[in-house]
Amino acid sequence: MISVRRAGDRRLEPILTPQQWHTFHDGAVAPDHGAGFHVLEHLDEARLPPDEELPHSQFVRAEWLTYVFEGSLSFEDERGQRGVLRAGEFQRASSAFDRRHRETNVSRTEWAHFFQFGLHPTATPSPGHQECRFSVADRRDVLCLVASPEGGEGVLRLDQDVKLYSSCLDGGRHLVHELAPGRVAWVHVVRGGAKVMEEALEAGDGAAVTGERVVSLTADGESEVLVFDVSEYRHSAGNGVVT
What is the pLDDT of residues 55-68, one digit of tens each? Predict the structure, then answer.
């Protein structure tokens, strides 16, 4: 079964800049996508003007993944450590202490375009942060493993039982990702368009794939997609997250 969440159903923060779109939010049109998809609790897209800091309205405990699509983003973690993420780089970090990371567009002329994904934190989340860069060539017409619980060389290590794949697809390219028993997937289109199973998705659209053995992807022109392979098991209940 596939359940689509259109880009227009995301919540746009009620301010002109920076621009932030939240796929999961309390006022979601589709009630089963209101608070997240299993352990995937946040899926945000943001565009940050030059030399601006991303505001965080509230502290959220989570294991966070950040992907910089365009531009550069400086960060300061909860321990005061600093660094810069550039286009094509992914970061894993946790916000388990007293505050979230700070993110700032380091450019004085160009906007930064990036994505952030929040996973429900484990009881003892791993502190610190880890970064990896994945070129377009690394991700061309394959599902490139970006993050997993096992980690490994060139792969971010996660506390949660989640695997994140990234792919840059040429037009007409077809990929199939197998889902093990008890696994489900969330697919998000970063740019271009793709058919997921039998549903046509465009940039900003997302889809939950449940009760299937595979996830089928076909690119409609040059496209980029992210695939989250997650366990159906939910570590804690009662907060409206899909289980």
Answer: 765 556 789 999 99
